[in-house]
Amino acid sequence: MNNQTKFKILKPAKEIFEAFVDPSKIRNFWFSSSSERWVEGKVITLKYDLYNAEGAIKIIEIQENEKIVFSWGDSEDAHIVTITLNELDHSTTIIEVVEEGFNENDSNYVHHIIDNKEGWVFMLSCLKCYLEFGVTQLRGALVK
Questions:
Q1: Which residues are CB-neighbours of 14 under 8 A, at least 6 positions away?
Q2: What percent of the chain has pLDDT over 70?
Q3: Which DSSP helix (H) or strand (E) runs through 73?
Q4: Considering the domain 2-133 in this protein, what is its CATH number?
C-alpha cells in the first residue's frame, strides 16, 4: 500500500519544482539545509536542525518541473517518494506526493501510514504558505 497526498498551490510548476531542488529555497518550508541541488543520481544530505536530525536521500528520477522521485530510509526499510507536479494553467499546480514501501505486516503499520501522511500534509502546507504568502517560519512549528 502507498500513502498519497494532494494539494493545490497557486503557483506555476517551475516555482514549486525549484522550491524542492534549490538548497537555498527548501529551507524556507521543509528541511533546514540540503547539501546540494537535487539532480538525478545524486545522494543529498538533508538536515533538520530543530530536531537535531540528518539523513540522506537518493534522487532516482528528475523530470524538470514535472516529477521528482527519491528514496529514503535504510536499505531494508527504504521508501520511494514520488512528487508529481500537474500544472493546470500558468498559475495553478496540483502537487501529489506518493510514498511507497510500507510493510503491511508491521504491527505499527497503521501508525506509520498516519504519521507519514501527517508529515506530508504539514510539509505541503508549509510549501503553500511559503510560495503563496512568503511565510518561511512554519516548518519548525510541528510538535510531536
A1: 65
A2: 95
A3: none
A4: 3.30.530.20
